[in-house]
Specification:
single chain, 475 residues, mainly alpha, Growth Hormone, Chain: A, 74% helix
């Protein structure tokens, strides 16, 4: 006969074989989330690849490559990634609900690898680079849907925010990694390095479990129990340990199955979708992706006294370090204060940058002010990385009811990437034809509108269970 007792630190199962201790450590949840986010590392590297690559293939440096792209072709090289992301995001939710979050994430390693190989082998073919960027974009779009979904479903409520922030933190690591590679290696070598990261992702994430929520939705109760026990750092299957959480997950699935499919005329559903789309809209319209994609060119235009490559590395470092703030505070301070702080501060930074370019473009002497673009952009990306950079993605997974999560998240990411395409395609023309100061002034205004949106519409989800969040939205 088996007996059990539980204290604040561990559960001890006593049977004929002796005692087996099951700890309450959250380490395995962190490990699974970090390995899932190696796909996000691929996304960050793909986003930042254009910063060191475009000046080389547009002949803006002394390095001569077989590959050459005009300004129009270069804008397509940047913008085909988000177009592919839209294509990848739309079916990702459906596939995740049919095949599982883990399985579809593993499948995305192949298009990441193939896309980079197309670029490596492109020689002088710009069309092949187009195709490679599009294929990488398909994988990036799907992973942008799946990684936050996976992290949210494996997490306990107490660390859901931290695991969610990993998405942007590791993505920023990918951006910094690419900026450093671009400054230190030749075009061929820093592109070739990108082909190896998807292989590392596949080889390590392969050993991680499927989410208990998905397994329960497929009535795979024993597998869900094993997954949950592994994630909660257990070593044997013990029904008494996992049953309360299993029952909560089942109850949540049954409740959302009954209520998640009303039309948008339903007040709660309309409100949830409006908040989700608003977060995705302002996440892009704050201008962060434009800065990441065109960092080197921005500093070239600004006439910075520091080399553009060094400036981009400083930007990438600021992105990565600043994301540590929400990593340790999002479950203490809350989502809403961080969103408000980041959007207001980013608005001020963009206004300062717009002022600098206004004086520069109108032939004022700005030689003594050439530090302003770097200081403004470092402060800008730092504050966005504390709030509007990482928080919208995992808040989508928090806000959307369980049964509708795959579909709504896919639509939200597709919407987000559609805006990314528009901005990355048009950004060079806005800067050169309309004016840099007008472009950055526009971003400043959008950041302030984002703060107003958060203050009025976005609920605080810190420390709330998924049931409490849905009740808050309904009320």
């Amino acid at each position: 006969m088996t007996t059990s007792r539980e204290d604040t630190k561990s559960l001890v199962i006593c049977d004929d074989a002796g005692y087996t201790k099951i700890g309450h450590s959250k380490t395995r949840q962190h490990v699974a989330a970090i390995l899932a986010n190696l796909a996000t590392l691929c996304i960050g590297m793909a986003n930042a690849w254009t910063a060191p690559a475009l000046p080389l293939i547009q002949r803006q440096t002394d390095v001569i490559l077989p590959l050459y792209a005009t300004e129009e072709q270069a804008s397509w090289i940047s913008s085909l990634l988000p177009i592919g992301a839209v294509v990848g995001a739309l079916p990702a939710g459906y596939l995740a609900d049919k095949l599982g979050r883990r399985r579809v994430l593993l499948m995305m390693a192949l298009p990441f690898f193939l896309g980079w190989m197309l670029i490596v082998l492109a020689a002088d073919s710009v069309v092949q680079v187009f195709l490679g960027r599009f294929v990488i974009g398909v994988a990036a779009g799907a992973c942008t849907v799946l990684v936050p979904l996976y992290n949210e479903e494996i997490a306990e409520d107490s660390i859901r925010g931290i695991l969610g922030v990993y998405f942007d933190f590791i993505g920023c690591l990918g951006i910094l990694f690419m900026y450093v590679l671009g400054a230190c290696l030749s075009y061929m070598w820093f592109t070739l390095v990108c082909t190896g990261v998807p292989l590392v992702f596949f080889a390590t994430f392969f050993w991680m479990p499927e989410t208990p929520t998905f397994l329960l939705s497929k009535h795979l109760f024993l597998e869900a129990e094993k997954s949950l026990l592994w994630l909660r750092n257990g070593s044997i299957v013990y029904h008494g340990r996992t049953q309360p959480e299993i029952m909560r997950l089942l109850s949540r699935l049954q409740e959302t199955t009954r209520t998640d499919r009303p039309s948008l005329l339903n007040k709660t559903t309309f409100k949830t979708v409006a908040i989700v789309l608003g977060l995705m809209f302002f996440h892009q319209m704050d201008g962060m992706n434009a800065v990441v994609f065109y960092a080197v060119q921005i500093f070239q235009d600004a006439g910075s006294s520091i080399s553009p490559s060094c400036c981009s590395i400083i930007i990438g470092t600021a992105l990565t370090l600043a994301i540590l703030v929400p990593t340790f505070t999002v479950d203490r301070i809350g989502r809403k204060p961080l969103l408000l702080m980041s959007s207001i501060a980013a608005s001020i930074c963009m206004a300062v940058l717009a002022g600098y370019f206004y004086y520069k473009d109108n032939d004022f002497d700005v030689d003594s002010w050439r530090w302003v673009p770097l200081a403004s952009l470092v402060t800008y990306v730092s504050f966005l990385s504390m709030g509007f950079g990482p928080l919208p993605f995992f808040m989508v997974a928090e806000l959307v009811p369980t049964a509708a999560k795959g579909r709504v998240t896919a639509y939200a990411i597709a919407f987000n990437r559609s805006i990314t395409f528009m901005l990355t395609k048009m950004f060079p023309f806005f800067v050169h034809d309309i004016g840099a100061y007008i472009t950055y002034g526009f971003f400043s205004g959008m950041c302030m509108l984002a703060a107003i949106f958060v203050a009025i519409w976005v609920p605080e989800t810190k420390g709330k269970s998924r049931e409490e969040i849905q009740l808050l939205l309904r009320n």
